């Protein structure tokens, strides 16, 4: 099956979490040779995610690290205010560098948020990544899609409205990296101390990636195989009202 796919998924507690993890994991069940690294944004591993993973039938590693309060998005903050998943993805990279024997393990690393939508075709597109492969992402950046612009088989620019001059002006879902690269450049990681929208760029620059290294996938970046879907926040406004009317709200023993 060639390279093992190492998928790194930060995840955080909210009413929709188990639904998102269920949907994602059941996609991943259809992907051969995959290792799912799930990193909870929490001070300790939650029972919900621990039980979920132990029953999901995937190869997985369960990690956790809590985002410090000053970096944590508050519920009324707009989502672009602070980067999400920074420490969680870095912990997963640290785990890979310390737990994988790069002499024997061939792999590809992909950052798969828990709420996106992934075509199975995407995983086979990324599997033979030599350095960094790239492709379009649907429903992102206020556009139908963002994509690398490909000329004569090479990526030359970015089709992106927002800050198109970024070194790598693409969403986290738009690229995968050969595992070996993380062992050649051991310091490469995400960083809070960069301008908004520069997480992808800071990582790829840390990995000494050049534009000419990029391998356009998905039929030279003409097919959308991943969508930056976002789940609406569920309003639980009737929970409180139920207490008045019915004596109690929903049973907290029933896991959601
Ligand atoms: N996430 C997290 N902690 C948070 C918020 C988000 O670990 O406080 C995770 C989330 O579960 C997802 C990823 O980070 O896997 C990206 O977050 P989100 O989907 O909210 O970001 P957006 O789609 O708005 O870029
Ligand atoms: Mn998202």
Largest sheet: 7 strands, mixed
Which sequence of SSEs, written as H and E, runs from N to C? Answer: EHEHEHEEHEEEEEHHEHEH
Task: Report low-confidence residues grouped into runs of 5 or more.
Answer: none
Spatial strand sequence of the major β-sheet: 3-2-1-4-10-6-11
Query: Fraction of residues in helices?
Result: 25-40%
What's the short version?
With 256 residues, the chain is an alpha/beta fold.
Structural description of this entry:
With 256 residues, the chain is of the alpha/beta class. It has helices at 17-28, 47-54, 86-99, 120-126, 179-184, 199-206, 218-221, 237-246; strands at 4-11, 34-40, 60-64, 107-111, 117-118, 132-134, 137-140, 143-151, 154-159, 175-178, 214-216, 226-227. The longest helix is centred in the middle third of the chain and has 14 residues, at 86-99. Residues 9-12, 41, 67, 72-73, 79, 84-85, 88, 113-115, 230 line the site of uridine-5'-diphosphate.
Layout of SSEs?
Elements: E1 4-11, H1 17-28, E2 34-40, H2 47-54, E3 60-64, H3 86-99, E4 107-111, E5 117-118, H4 120-126, E6 132-134, E7 137-140, E8 143-151, E9 154-159, E10 175-178, H5 179-184, H6 199-206, E11 214-216, H7 218-221, E12 226-227, H8 237-246
Parallel strand pairs: 1-2, 1-4, 2-3, 6-11
Antiparallel strand pairs: 4-10, 5-12, 6-10, 7-8, 8-9
């Amino acid at each position: 099956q060639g390279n093992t796919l190492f998928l790194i998924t930060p995840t955080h507690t909210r009413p929709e979490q188990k639904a998102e993890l269920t949907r994602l994991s059941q996609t991943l069940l259809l992907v051969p040779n995959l290792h799912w690294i799930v990193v909870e944004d929490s001070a300790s591993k939650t029972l919900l995610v621990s039980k979920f993973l132990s029953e999901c039938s995937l190869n997985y590693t369960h990690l956790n690290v809590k985002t410090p309060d000053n970096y944590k998005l508050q519920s009324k903050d707009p989502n672009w205010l602070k980067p999400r998943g920074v420490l969680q993805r870095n912990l997963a990279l640290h785990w890979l560098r310390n737990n994988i024997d790069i002499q024997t393990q061939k792999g590809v690393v992909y950052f798969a948020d828990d709420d996106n939508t992934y075509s199975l075709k995407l995983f086979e597109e990324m599997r033979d990544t030599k350095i960094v492969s790239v492709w379009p992402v649907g429903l992102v950046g206020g556009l139908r899609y963002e994509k690398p612009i490909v000329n004569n088989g090479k990526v030359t620019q970015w089709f992106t409205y927002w800050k198109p001059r970024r070194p790598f002006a693409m969403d986290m879902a738009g690229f995968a990296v050969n595992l070996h690269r993380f062992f050649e450049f051991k310091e490469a990681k995400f960083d809070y101390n960069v301008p908004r929208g520069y997480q992808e760029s800071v990582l790829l620059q840390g990995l000494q990636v050049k534009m000419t290294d990029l391998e356009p996938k998905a039929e030279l970046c003409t097919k959308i195989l991943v969508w930056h879907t976002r789940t609406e926040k569920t309003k639980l406004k009737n929970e409180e009202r139920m207490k008045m009317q019915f004596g109690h709200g929903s049973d907290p023993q029933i896991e959601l």
